[in-house]
Design brief:
Layout: H1 2-23, E1 26-30, E2 34-35, E3 39-42, E4 45-47, H2 49-60, E5 64-67, H3 73-82, E6 87-91, E7 101-103, E8 108-117, E9 133-137, H4 141-149, E10 154-158, H5 161-169, E11 175-179, H6 180-189, E12 195-212, H7 213-229, H8 232-243, H9 254-266, H10 268-309, H11 320-337, E13 342-348, H12 351-358, H13 360-377, E14 383-386, E15 391-396, H14 401-417, E16 428-434, H15 441-457, E17 463-465
Parallel strand pairs: 1-5, 1-6, 9-10, 9-11, 16-17
Antiparallel strand pairs: 2-3, 3-4, 6-12, 7-12, 8-11, 8-12, 13-15, 13-16, 14-15
């Protein structure tokens, strides 16, 4: 009899749980409490970009989202694993997190940056990091990313980005990886004027709501539906609200007041003169501060423009100009050392049909998802670029044709198994070609493109090798 009741208990509880969800359920969630302006805990209150998104979702649904305060992201992840939280509001996906969490479609994307002390050289990505000691916030995805892809990089974990920037300023390590908006916010609020951004660190932050496996089937479809309802105007308004970080000018008025009082005892004429000179001096200092601020903003704009000139605006991949330059370098290297590079061209089908069915926003989401599949599938030495509207190019340095064919097959498999694409998954054709003697990049590309057309003729989903 006891076994019978135990057998009956689980279905009954499942029915009750589904009924509670339909009537309006309280979802306990955790955040990263030290990641302003993305999200933070201030006086027990959840603030930041993720809060604005969550407020709008809560107003549109029957769910009641209840914050469970924590001291760090690491503690928030622990709470989720222990069942004290059912959701995290702003998280990057990673292989280890995917073992106990499911992720919504991304709703906010931003670059990660490398920070160093003034006078440090610019660094072109993580592959350029050599002997430097790198600070990483404990629990952040980059700790796992570096361990898997750059095991030779020396890492120092810190409690939070703010604490890490202070320790970087003290010289306890050489570089720190942080998120662009939060780095700016912390540098301004803590007046760490000796720190500057010296480069970008892959991969991009592609931030989603993360829910526990037991809540996935009930909560994720709802969250994805609500994310799609956000208009571009609403997204821009939220971004503007939290990206306008201003530094506070704390002015000590007590000392000037005492100076004026003492001078007044000497004589009215002297006081008047001092006050006029002091006023002009203060204005001059303020103008100098404004000029320094504008110079810093201009420098950052130039760095951003340099980044954008080499990257595709939609997917964040390298663009055509950059990959052509890299390919010419590989041709020159092959002529000197005879180590052949390979080229993979992937093209997705029926994009216009998907655009007509799902709309502009979903078409852009498909292209971003394809880009993420390419980045997560290829090796770190490979260069992934968006060649045209529907074509993606992978440049594989010092790679023979057999290795390139293995990589192409892995790419096709990843496209067919990607959960984000779902029913919107486009067909994919792939062509492969290895560089030959006395061949230019144009000849190499054209020969590989012929293999791509052969893949199309065979009905997509196969990788064809150039003759």
């Amino acid at each position: 009899m006891l076994r019978f009741f135990r057998f009956l208990f689980l279905p009954v509880m499942l029915v009750i749980s589904v009924f509670a969800t339909a009537q309006g359920e309280t979802i306990n969630y955790c955040i990263d409490p030290n990641w302003a302006p993305y999200e933070a805990l201030r006086n027990g209150e959840h603030i930041g970009i993720s809060r604005d998104y969550l407020d709008r979702i809560e107003k549109r649904t029957d769910f009641d989202f209840s914050l469970v305060p924590t001291d760090s992201l690491e503690q928030s992840l622990t709470f989720v694993r222990e069942g004290q939280c059912q959701m995290l509001t702003m998280l990057n996906t990673s292989p280890s997190r995917a073992t106990y969490l499911d992720f919504s479609m991304p709703y906010f994307e931003a670059p990660n940056v490398l920070v160093a002390k003034k006078g440090s050289a610019m660094i072109q990505g993580l592959q350029a990091v050599q002997d430097e000691l790198v600070g990483i916030v404990e629990g952040y995805r980059h700790a796992e990313y570096l361990a898997r892809n750059y095991p030779e990089v020396r890492v120092k974990t810190v409690e939070s980005e703010a604490r890490g920037l202070v320790r970087l300023s003290r010289g306890e390590f050489d570089l720190m990886i942080g998120s662009l908006l939060s780095v700016y916010s912390n540098i301004n609020s803590m007046k760490l004027d000796d720190l500057v951004i010296v480069g970008y660190a892959e991969p991009y932050d592609s931030l989603s709501f993360a829910v526990t496996k037991d809540m996935s089937s009930r909560l994720l479809p709802l969250m994805n539906e609500q994310i799609r309802k956000f208009s571009e105007h609403q997204k821009v308004e939220i971004y503007k609200r939290w990206s306008n970080v201003k530094s506070v000018d704390d002015t000590d008025v007590l000392t000037p007041f005492l100076i004026v009082l003492v001078i007044a005892l000497v004589g009215f004429g002297t006081v008047l003169r001092k006050r006029v000179v002091g006023s002009y001096t203060q204005q001059l200092k303020q103008k100098n501060k404004e000029i320094e601020s504008l110079q810093g903003a201009l420098l950052e704009k130039n760095r951003t423009l340099e980044f954008l000139s080499n990257h595709d605006a939609l997917t964040g991949l390298y663009n055509r100009n950059h990959v052509m330059h890299r390919a010419e370098e590989e041709v020159s290297r092959f002529q000197r050392f005879h180590t052949p590079p390979s080229l993979i061209i992937a093209e997705i089908d029926n994009l216009s049909e998907l655009h007509a069915t799902y709309g502009t926003q979903n078409t852009e989401d498909i292209l971003k998802a394809v880009a993420n599949v390419c980045l997560s599938t290829v090796r770190e030495v490979d260069v992934v670029a968006r060649w045209s509207g529907e074509q993606f190019l992978v440049l594989c340095p010092q790679t023979d044709i057999a290795s390139a064919e293995v990589l192409a097959q892995r790419l096709l498999k990843a496209m067919t198994e990607n959960d984000v694409l779902g029913p919107r998954r486009p067909n994919t054709a792939v062509g492969i070609g290895v560089l030959r003697d006395n061949e230019s990049f144009t000849d190499w590309f054209d020969r590989t493109a012929k293999a791509l057309y052969q893949s199309k003729r065979l009905g997509y989903g196969v990788a064809c090798t150039a003759e």
